[in-house]
Fold this protein.
Amino acid sequence: MKWSLNAIARLGRLFLDGAQHAGSMAFFALELAWVLIPTWSRPRDIFQQIYAAGVLSLVIILVAGGFVGLVLGLQGYNILSNFNASESLGVMVALSLVRELGPVVAALLFAGRAGSAITAEIALMKTTEQLAALEMMAIDPMRRVIGPRFWGAMISVPLLAAMFSLVGIVGGYLIGVVVLGVDQASYWGQIREQMEAWDDVAGGAIKSLAFGAVIALISVYEGYRAEPTASGMARATTQTVVLSSLAVLGLDFVMTAFMFGA
Amino acid sequence: MNVQRGVELVVGLFVLAGIAALMVMALQWSNFGASRVAGYEVTARFDNVGGLSVQSPVKLAGLTIGRVDSIEIHPETFQAEVRMVIDDKYDNLPADSFANIYTAGLLGAQYVEISPGGALESLGDGDRITMTQSAIILESVVSKFLFDKAKE
């Protein structure tokens, strides 16, 4: 009896914690939105963050994109050749990458590579009271620390996703055309025939922009609200990766249903 | 100072590379250019368009010369009226040309194939191709084949 009551109480607390978390994140997002435009008065801060979040993630994104393309080419060839349709390999690889895998996998990798770093950096600044020191000097940390990192992450993700897809399509070309002998003209021709600039390419870009905004928001929020202790930082970093990944996958389903469904 | 400049350069390159990747996919690798043919309009009525859709290619001798612009039901004949935009380069198609709906491969996308006729006057803007052949519906071909076999 007592055991079951405890379980229900724990469930209730879990729910309340979640609601509190969501609520304070929403307030934080409003507070952040207020400084987003003024942040651009110091564009160099933002460039610095694009470098830290985006340029330094290039290696992992490009290598992962290449391998995803290679694997898609290999698997796609095996499946499509069962239907005598291996000429459609190009369009299969390209559409999977541009619509889904590019935005989603790039966002997941980005959350692990750069989102966690942003959280850890901000959380350490908070733990060592650097944020408080900034406030003492009448410098708004929202504007000088949080804003540039948000912009840096949000700008980087769509660019990285586009490069991921491009490298992946080239990877599929390498395995399909160079190694397995699919006709080169039909690889590119089918892509050109069936990939839509607006629906597919722009749709994927819109998706990855949304993922970038979500990851950026979660990363800076978790850092800003981290408990100022060593274990608090660890928890915040973990939370960033877990929440961002779940948010990206959930949002992907919703956006796909709206954009490609019906 | 120097470091800051290096960072800005690298970031600039990064942003350019990302935008270039998007543009290559959107403008070069997609059917973006083909979707906006400047040309003249021709209509044709088919009993059955099968899987033909807006943006399907219009081909002559296997080369794409235009796109399907719209497909509507003609209110009197109950046929499907297909409006096609054909590139201005090909403005000398004979007026008695034939329009067929073919399938690329066994299960591929469907397209309109124009077979040129022999008339001296050519198709102009707003003209109608009167001689058409509908899409081949796989089920009807198979059932026809089976019934013919059964008769023997």
Remarks:
- Helices of chain B lie at 2-28, 138-151.
- Chain B is about 25% helix and 30% strand.
